[in-house]
Write a structure and sequence with these properties.
alpha/beta, about 270 residues, Rossmann fold, binds S-adenosylmethionine, globular
Length: about 270
């Protein structure tokens, strides 16, 4: 009974969230100024230095949405063969690049259709897992398409920030033990928050992703200083921190609310 309620509620929320993503207005600044430059630099350079990761020849972006991050990475990586898959036809309908194959549908089916099984050097899921009820299906597709030793990178909102947001909206509580509604820690132009997600604890992701055939190489997340945390809770503020407060991982000093997990396909 409860499960059914949860599903209905989740579907309703997702339908609302969808229109924000289609416009892609709310996170433009977040991505352009806070995520891309620093996060992707760490993401690309780090494997290159430590894992002998050469320029990928085949890159697959699962849950690519309108494809802007796919295009960004495709260019950054020196234009490898690139595929972007998404379950949502409307969103991917906005993706347009004649050098990238964008296609709507179930990722596993598309991997089969394009004969990509065991072929990709790099797979990304960018801000996808916290947006999907069945995140392990997405991770499983990533695992299917990677070659042995290939790199899987997942970026998402750090669950610790969702907890903060829940304090503000504590009336919205998940009926599913393993799933938490979260507030996207981005203030929109009208100062409201974006509410679309199915988040889990970091431990849940860490435990279950490896079971899909990966070794964890690295996790980059941010820990706010105690003072900042207290203030954010007190004012119910989006926990964006100043540049210099990230004393732990300077390379992501301007992407405070994201967490990056980097895996190698076993
Ligand atoms: C928040 S958007 C992020 C889009 C894009 N990766 C980006 O960084 O802008 C999440 C995307 O995940 C897609 N998605 C959700 N569940 C999916 C699934 N099971 N398979 C493929 N895509 C999925 C949604 O349709 C949506 O486009």
């Amino acid at each position: 009974m409860e499960k059914r309620f949860w599903k209905k509620e989740a579907d309703r929320l997702w339908r609302e969230a969808e229109k924000h993503w289609i416009g892609r207005k709310q996170d433009k600044n977040y991505r352009d100024f806070l995520v891309r430059e620093h996060l992707l630099e760490a993401l690309i350079n780090e494997p290159a230095r430590h894992l002998n990761f050469h320029r990928p020849e085949l890159y697959v972006d699962i849950g690519c949405g309108d494809g802007s991050e796919t295009q960004y990475l495709h260019a950054y990586l020196g234009q490898p063969d690139t595929y972007g898959f998404d379950i949502n036809e409307t969103l991917i309908g906005n993706a347009n690049d004649d050098k990238i194959i964008f296609e709507a549908g179930n990722s596993r089916n598309l991997i089969r259709k394009h004969k990509l099984r065991g072929k990709a050097d790099l797979v990304t899921t960018l801000f996808v897992l916290h947006d999907t009820p069945d995140y392990l299906e997405v991770v499983g597709a990533a695992s299917d398409t990677l070659r042995k030793g290939g790199t899987y990178i997942n970026v998402m909102v750090h669950p610790q920030f969702s907890k903060l947001m829940l304090k503000k909206h504590k009336e919205i509580i998940s009926r599913d033990e393993d799933t938490t509604f979260c507030m996207y820690p981005i203030v929109e132009e009208d100062r409201t928050f974006y509410l679309p997600h199915f988040h889990r604890s970091l431990g849940t992701y860490l435990d279950n992703i490896e079971k899909q055939g990966f070794y964890l190489q690295k996790i980059i997340g941010m820990q706010p200083l105690p003072h900042d945390l207290k203030e954010a809770i007190k004012w119910h503020r989006s926990p964006f921190y100043e540049h210099e407060t990230n004393v732990y991982w300077p390379e992501i000093s301007q992407v405070p609310s994201s967490v990056l997990m980097q895996y190698i396909k076993a």
